Amino acid sequence: MLILLSFFGVCLLFLGSVIAQDQPTAEQQEDMEAYFQKVAEPGPEHQKLASLEGTWSQVITLWPEPGAEPMVFEGTTENRMILGGRFLQCNSESGEGDMHTKSLTIYGYDNRFAEYTTVGFDTWGTYFVTAQGPMQEDGETVVMHGTDLDPLMNFEQEYDMVLRFVDQDTFTTEIIFYNPEMTGGEEQFKMLEVVNTRVK
């Protein structure tokens, strides 16, 4: 932590020296401050994520492979905004026995690129997956695209993570694969769908 803080301090000193040397005009200084404020501060997109705070029950449908009969589980998720309303943290638990799963998913919105982001962890591995993408024209569906190189299987997974705001008491998530190693020759393969219902 001390190393990180020291590095951050060095970066600030360096930035300060560069600014001092270049001597930006008052207008440039105002533009820089406005940009950094825009990048740093939560906006309406973060409020959209905040609408998912609370306790939710889940119905999870998992297709083990293309064409297989789905497996259905129940679960729960506790969602809360963190870091001053910048990210939504979802702690989920589902299934029983060998299929018992705990997961941590964090959603955000990157003001720089105008895209939603997600990073996910679960008890099925010691790694994480990420994706990012825009809100669709309907204003309720976020499609975040990602890739992940699997060194054991020696192929790159290509997928969408879809977050859909259905209504104030319902939202869904999906994982859809596109690489041929996962799709079984089809154009795409939806492996997972989760329907979340608010617990009142």
Outline the structure in words.
This protein has a 10-stranded antiparallel β-sheet with strand order 6-5-4-3-2-1-10-9-8-7. It starts with a helix and ends with a strand. The protein contains 4 helices and 10 strands; from the N terminus they run H-H-H-E-E-E-E-E-E-E-E-E-H-E. It has a single domain (46-198), classed as Calycin beta-barrel core domain (Lipocalin), CATH 2.40.128. Strand 1 (54-62) and strand 2 form a beta hairpin. Residues 1-7 and 10-14 have low confidence and may be disordered. The protein is an alpha+beta fold and 200 residues long.
What labels would you give this structure?
4 helices, Lipocalin, ten-stranded antiparallel β-sheet, about 200 residues, alpha+beta
What is the CATH superfamily?
Answer: Calycin beta-barrel core domain
Give the tally of structural domains: 1
Would you identify the CATH architecture? Beta Barrel
Percent helix range: 10-25%
The chain-level mean pLDDT equals 89
Layout: helices, strands, pairs:
Elements: H1 2-22, H2 26-40, H3 44-50, E1 54-62, E2 71-82, E3 87-94, E4 101-110, E5 115-122, E6 129-133, E7 141-150, E8 155-167, E9 170-177, H4 180-183, E10 189-198
Antiparallel strand pairs: 1-2, 1-10, 2-3, 3-4, 4-5, 5-6, 7-8, 8-9, 9-10
